[in-house]
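The instructor's notes for this session suggest beginning with a concrete chain rather than abstract definitions. Hand out the sequence below and ask the class to guess, before any prediction is shown, which regions might be ordered.
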Amino acid sequence: MAREKKSPGLKILWLWTIGTAAILVTNVFRTRLRDLEQIMNSQQQQQEGAITDSVPVDTALESDEGIFREVK
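After discussion, reveal the predicted structure:
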């Protein structure tokens, strides 16, 4: 039972099909990575925005010098 010889055209067709599938899988993978990176960047910008929108607190005055007290 000898193996039938495949024509060169069929081999080229298989190469074309596998190559096209590889290109499509690569494009989907790159697109998903790009979308994930954009989501991560937007979340990071939101966190940075929340940090920069906060009010800075000066903790340099830890003594009672600048505080007025009511004397009774």
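Then share the key points. The radius of gyration is 33 Å. Helices lie at 8-52.
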